[in-house]
Sequence to fold (848 residues):
Amino acid sequence: MTKIRTLLKNAIHPVAIISLLFSLGIPLLIAFLGNSQLAGAENKALIGKLDLNLAFWLFSIQGMLTVILLIDLREDAKSYLKELNPGKNWWLVFLTFTAIAVFATSFWIEGRHRVQSDESIMLSAAQNLYHNKIAGSCDEGEFVQGKLNCTAHANNFKAFGLSYIYALGMPIFGKDLQWIFAFHIILFALSALVFFWALLAWSQNKLLALVGTVALMFQPTVMFQFRSSSVEPLYVFLSALSLLVMHWAWTKDTVRHWTLLAIVLAFFGQTRQETVFCLAAFIIPAVYKQLSKKDLRFPAFISTLSIFSIPILLTISYYQGYGFQGGEFEAHGHFFKHIAVNWKVMTQSPLQANGLLTNPFLTSSTWLALGGLIALIIQAIRKDKFALKIFGFLLLYHIQSYMVFENVSGDFTIEINQRYALVIFPTIAFLSAYLLNWLIFTLIPLISNYKPSLQKEGITLTLALACSIVIAGLTLNHQESFKANIMYNRNHLATEEYQILQWLKTQPQKDRLFIYSRPWHFIGYGHSAMHYNAINRMSAGELQNLLDKYQNEVYYVRGLDCWDRETWHKKAVERRIGSVCDQFENKFEHQMIFSTLITNNYRLNIARMGNVRDFNVEKLLQINSFTLDSAHSKLLLEYEIAELNSGKPWRKLVYINDQLISNLPFSTGFFTKYFDYDSLKAGYNNAKVSILDTLKNQVIVTKSIRSFFPLQSQITKLTDLSPKIQQQSWGKLMKNRSVNGNILTVNGQSFENGLGTHAQSYIEYELLGQYQKFSVLVGQDDEDLGGDGMKFRILGDNKLIWEQIVKGDQIIPAEISVEGINVLQLQVDSLQNKNFDHANWLEPLLFR
Fold:
């Protein structure tokens, strides 16, 4: 009680009271003004404007003040760091492990985005900060003579500390931000150094500091994230820096040191919104120390912290009440469920069949951390002062973790959320090292006569080296997992962006404009970009001026957002705009120049833009029927072409089973065409009509229709037979429907006849030797594209006749002899990933 009275007495003086009211008033006022129900929409809009326009200047003042303080404290800093010198041998071991970790991370893991949407926002915001001094992503804009003319500034719930650092580096390293992955490697090495110093400063235990640092740097998740442009690496660095500067301030106990800590903590808060909730772990002990006497340390600390926390407070206030998922997956109330789910992910992730890690977590580190927590609690109960202080610090620090795991974003079964583990990995690393240290220096002496000593330098270094070798070895053993890029290697947007950049590398350097659903992706790398809607609003004249301006280097990009597919994980809400893209393609001329399949799930298309069409592509061509006309003993194809206002230098091409049978000048109207049977085959036949622009040598539109013609053959549709045996791993066998009950569709083409199943699948039919041939098309249904493909097998009397691996939107034909076969067996096997394996046997026919 005496101590508390002393603290309160020292807090009650004019400067401290004014500073306290000022420091508390800032967040309270910002929170109030951002609540539109309490303060009105105008004040919320004001918070939004301040969020965009204030951060750059506060960050800059913050940076200049940091430089001034470091220059002023340079001699003290040298003296302080000398006190943290563990000795030459310890430095040699530390630098060796750091070099190994940096080498493995640099050369085993490809530098690329892993959570594309978040990371591209950071890059776009960096461009906006550099060019326009605005702390928000630039959603649309053009680079004119090297300067970004942003036409759509956007608030975002991301913090922009990392974007500001990128902006600082742009004049030196390049405005295209291609250097950010190298920067993160440097940050990786610096994080190791600062974390080592911080642990050593607070514990005065070299073994704990070295082993804890190795446990952090050799975490697969940590290594992967430091090869991205995600904000989590900066979080790891600043958390370690905050611990180190906290100890420096605690030791030196001056206004300047505490002010520097406040600046570091405020910038630490600019990594993630949730980070502000861990600052109590620093603020409470700092204030306790500062109020030991009546001076300016407390006022300077809290005032500085409050002022430079304004940017993140504005962001939090502007987005208060924002529903990230909503509906069934409301963003709050999932803490205990996520703890259970994430524990399973981090401790029960067996290796894949190919020996690769399933998730970027090592079970051993999770169990070591649990053991370390138990040891810490035991020592705290035994009133070990260090354990008590650390336990209290961790409780306050991980209020932040509660905020993460309480929300949908804390579910590690959603792969993109696994990066949030970096919030807890510094603690996991410390607890792992604490357990090993406790086993060596506390538990072993209790149960044996052997008493190792921290004072025996050689023994301690040897033990630390042994522990570090084991920890690092467990990680390095998974070299192939790193090279296979197992973390988020199926992230659609990251893969899409990677393919776009790979395509751009093959193109000559030019000024280009990209039309895309997420223009900020391109802006982040220094390319002009607009949304589809911006082009839709233009007149034909305005668009032509734009095309002329860029010398026709304007590109339409159709990616993930343009495909109407459900996401694999329903909590990961993504908004699709398929109809917008379809209408865009119908309205504007475009010439396809690049197309690739992304994650076996959807196609990325890049097309050169033209002007507005004077016709409706969707209504231009319709096929009405494809039948046999017995009266004329001819094949009948009926189609119609819509009336156009002007003549076109086009041609009409008609194909039967991919054989060109008619090539005529373009004309409009209703057409009835008769053809000989020669182009037909017994079974299913395909008729296709295309309209070709002869000037551009580009097909404008193609429509097709499939019809069944038995001709003179005796054909049985397999779907008319009942299977003798049928088994599958999920769902039930569907006739003439997909396994989900939809129309059978592969690569956008619909089929009336077939079987929809799911791997693993086995279907058996009795043929009794009555048939000569079996034909079928196989493919993965569009309703759930993804995975790594499936293997289709056809067996006869238990002998393999045909097999084929099918991936993505492939349609593979099979035509095999079944002469003398009694039992036909259709089998579909998953490869390594059994998800998405919606298998279709299309138009299966038996010929006598």
About this structure: The mean pLDDT is 90. The CA atoms of residues 205 and 455 lie 10 Å apart. The longest helix spans residues 180-203. The chain is about 45% helix and 20% strand.
